[in-house]
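Lay summary. Proteins are chains of building blocks that fold into shapes, and those shapes determine what they do. In this project we predict the shape from the chain. Here is one chain we studied, written as its sequence of building blocks.
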Amino acid sequence: MKATLTDIAREVGVSKSLVSMYLNNHRLSAKIAAETKKKIDLAVERSGYRPSHAARTLAGGGSRILGMVVGGLTDPYFAHLADIAIGEAAAAGCQLLLGATRWDKTEELYALENLVRHDCAGVLHCPELDTESPFLEQLSRENYPLLLLNNWSPRYSTLYSDYTGAHRSLARFLAARRCPEMEICHIFAPPRVLEELGEFPEVEGCRFRLQPPVADFEALARHLLETRPPAIYVFHNELLAPILELLEGTSYRPILIIRCGPGYDFVRHPLIAGAIFSRASDAVRQGIRALAEWSKDGAPKTPVSLTLPATFRSAEEIPKKGKTNIVFRVQETVNQ
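And here is the predicted shape, written in a compact code that computers can read:
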């Protein structure tokens, strides 16, 4: 059972109003004895007490601290999104606290809980999140401002890059080159993208074929060399360098399509015919702005969904300018 303010007051042996005064940093809390404050802190820690977000909002004690959960700051994608979020939060007069899952399932909820317990007025969650947990159910009941990036849920507000139009444009591009099918290589893709790609309709004679997530690149390499699909869609840029290296020593020359987004520029290479550009940067900007507003006015009573369309562009349509992207150790790249 969730601990209450009354439980904390009873354990410490003081009034409920005194505990509330201390936890809400009331100006009169400076007069509370240090020993009493220590007892309250210990009781809060032992019980896992967390003040209701709804009650705090009604009391006018909204925080100007926002939170963001990323996979890891060594990843160019998440590092770029975090940098955007920090700037957007500062422009809105807010501070931003970061939490990282480090791609560990056991760290997912801890990273989110830690930000909520540090009084963040709302959290933008970027990695995949299992939304079926008692803690998240509690956040949903309290109407806590939790925004999920590319991880759709009916219970929480979401920011989503819609690839439908981009994938159809890509299919028409391939069909014009008489390419009957495309192999899709990925490490992980958002569930809605996987569902869309797995059931992608045939467009002008071209069909997408989705491979399981890559865990062993050697197995993927064997598969590609044995089946030799006429086109490969590299959904995760971490796979691009090893795939290019694999193809260098062979006569196999498929059409390569890559996905560009935050932290990953377009890589110009003879085999790369085009790219799909995501809108994750814009989604993060809009997400942080929304959280900043909700920290003042409260979150919407029902979840909202913001969809930003991704776009496909052929290599010829992408300007030849920009700086070298050292991630792939190639000679020329262009920015999105």
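What the prediction tells us: Residues 57-61, 322-336 have pLDDT under 50 and may be disordered.
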